[in-house]
Amino acid sequence: MIFNPENECMDIQTRKKLQFAALKNLTETVYSKVPFYRNKMEQAKITPYDIHSIADIEKLPFTSKDDLRENYPHGLRACSQARIVEVHMSSGTTGKPVVNEYTKKDLDIWWESMARTLSGAGCTRNDIVHNCYGYGLFTGGAGVHYGSLNVGAEVLPMSSGNTERQLMIMRDFGSTMLTCTPSYALYLAEEAEEAGIDLKQLPINKGCFGAEPWSESMRAEIESRYGMKAYDIYGLTEIIGPGVAFECEAQNGLHINEDFFYPEIIDPASGKSLPAGEKGELVFTTLTREGTPLLRYRTRDITCLINEPCICGRTTIRMNRLLGRTDDMLIIRGVNIFPSQIEQALIEIEGTEPQYMIIINRGDSHLDEVELQVEVKKEFFTDETRGLEILRSRIEHIMKSKLQIGMKVKLVEPKTIERSIGKAKRVIDNRKF
Ligand code: DLL
User: Does residue 335 sit in the same domain as residue 317?
Assistant: First the structure.
């Protein structure tokens, strides 16, 4: 189903003209209203008058996650506070959160993008959307919620947790569409099996899954366990939340809502633009955003663009499912985590060495399980095990409060974690994506 054929199937040349007009407008706005962008553009010796076509976007400076953090909380806002109606923040816990401030028009863009996304997966006003993405500062819950309302579907604002209740409501309310992380979808399926519920007999027949890496084999497993079609959805807090790109019935690449979010692929090392088909770092410019618009934002996600027509009739450019990241960010149970955060927390705990290994497994329950091995100072390894046990539970507690995910801590003797020559290996990720 195509939610907005006029825009989604627009003639490509017409779209390019609109993108150019929006880009020009955007550069004028940020140049005049956001000192951060004016400085960057001055350093790059460029003004809005130098933008003569959409291709001139390459002249503009990039924006990075660090820029966002350094300008926390309001440094990148391009309008008055009075025009802001909603705020979301990154799920990450490193330093300062990454903030997105929405005006009413920004929310309209999100409503539209998410309605296109859900419609791409076949959602109509007859559907009952079982939304297990988290509600709160995370964008997943709100994004799907708004999209469902815009389509006219009925939405069940579930959030995650309490599986028994999830399954009861799914059955009793006849949910037809599931939205959550792919690992949570598999976890729910496992619990349903345990409870003797045959999901294939329930009305649930499609789902939109994203916010973390997943694979074709996970898709096959979700589809067969639920007897449903499983679609990939992509997005990030900084740009809008979910709804930046989505799969259609072809399930062959994600259509980018490029009238709102202009994509580029660059070589992460040189910053040079790469043509469609070549793998590199995904960069977005939020052409029509008002609250916290972004110029050439480096996502650190790796993929390639697909510039061929799609059988569904949409003319928007597609991106491949994500192929990795340029940094070492891990997504564990939907929470973005950098190994350096764990290191930082350990340094502050007396009795530990800054030697650690993070081992991630996708457990029997299909949820991510983390074991953190930490080297302990020699003097702690005595016959008295109580001291060790206190230290172990203290580390678990600190990690949980700083990183927002639970992990199993295993204390090991000094010098047991393998030392590497050169770049230390801190993560063993056994999950299959
Ligand atoms: O994860 C927004 C979202 C919510 C997307 C619900 C889809 C569904 P963040 O927490 O800011 O926002 O994390 C963004 O998650 O840069 C990717 O690395 C990763 N990611 C998002 N979608 C996918 C996907 C939300 N479909 C970061 N496949 C992004 C793989 C994904 N990775």
Answer: no
Q: Which of 159, 236, 254, 281 to mutate to test the pocket of ligand 1 (most atoms within 8 A of CB)?
A: 236
Does the CB atom of residue 281 touch ligand 1 within 6 A?
A: no
pLDDT in the model for residue 404: 85
The DSSP element (H or E) to which 261 belongs, if any, is strand 261-266
How far apart are the CA of 429 and the centre of ligand 1, in A?
A: 18
Buried b (16+ CB within 10 A) or exposed e, 102-131: bbeebbebbbbbbbbbbbbbbbeeebbbbb
Distance 211 CA to ligand 1 centre (A): 3
Local confidence band at 355 (pLDDT 50, 70, 90 cut-offs): confident
Q: Are residues 163 and 19 in the same domain?
A: yes
pLDDT (average), residues 6-29: 98
CATH number at residue 422: 3.30.300.30
Is a pLDDT exceeding 80 seen at residue 422? no
Q: Domain limits at 406?
A: 330-429
Q: Give 235 Cα–ligand 1 centroid separation in angstroms.
A: 5
Tens-digit pLDDT profile for residues 235-275? 999 999 999 999 999 999 999 999 999 999 999 999 999 99
Describe the strand order of the beta sheet including 324-325 as a list of residue ranges: 273-274, 261-266, 280-286, 297-303, 324-325
Determine contact, residues 321/358, Cβ cutoff 8 Å.
no
| Predicted confidence (pLDDT) at residue 417 exceeds the cutoff of 70 | yes
Q: What is the pLDDT of residue 421?
A: 58
Minimum-distance ligand 1 atom for the alpha carbon of 98 = 11
pLDDT band at residue 429 under the 50/70/90 scheme: very high
Instruction: Identify whether residues 359 and 276 lie together within a single domain.
Output: no
CA 336 to chain centre: 9
Distance from residue 242's CA to the centre of ligand 1 (Å): 7
Task: Specify whether 279 is located in the same domain as 342.
Answer: no
Domain match, 394 and 357 both: yes
Q: Does residue 133 have its Cβ closer than 6 Å to ligand 1?
A: yes
206/276 same-domain check? yes
Length of the chain measured in residues: 433
User: Of 299, 326, 353, which residue constitutes the final position of a domain?
Assistant: 326
Task: Determine the Cα–Cα distance for residues 21 and 15; give it in Å rounded to an integer.
Answer: 10
What's the number of domains the chain is made of?
2
Q: Whose CA is nearest to atom 27 of ligand 1?
A: 236
Q: Say whether both 346 and 310 belong to one domain.
A: no
Which atom number of ligand 1 is nearest to the Cα of residue 325? Answer: 18
202-216 pLDDT per residue, tens: 999 999 999 988 888
- Say if ligand 1 is within 6 A of residue 90 CB: yes
Cα 190 to ligand 1 centroid, rounded to whole Å:
23
